[in-house]
What does this fold into?
Amino acid sequence: MSKLTDFLDSQSDFFIEVEGTMDKIRRKLGNHLDRDDDGVCALADGSNKWGLEYRLYTHERPDPPLGNQFHSNTEFRHSDYEYRLSDNDLVSDLLDSGYYLGRN
It folds into this structure.
């Protein structure tokens, strides 16, 4: 994880997002969150989604081997970021370490 945090500390900004139903998001990250909050991608209640998906968006790709996990961001959301990391463990660890949803 230190390679990821070292990389992020060198970036001008990056974006952390969580996707899931609001009940699952609130259960994991806190009741204070709302579907309109920065970094929350709320699915409709009753969606067939078993858990949460965490994503990190960046302007640059880190060097390998960490950079191998980053992919070109072809998603409609956050198109101002060129790269995306979809890794629940790494991104949720960032939140546990003091980073936050939305633009950091």
User: Anything to note?
Assistant: The mean pLDDT is 93.
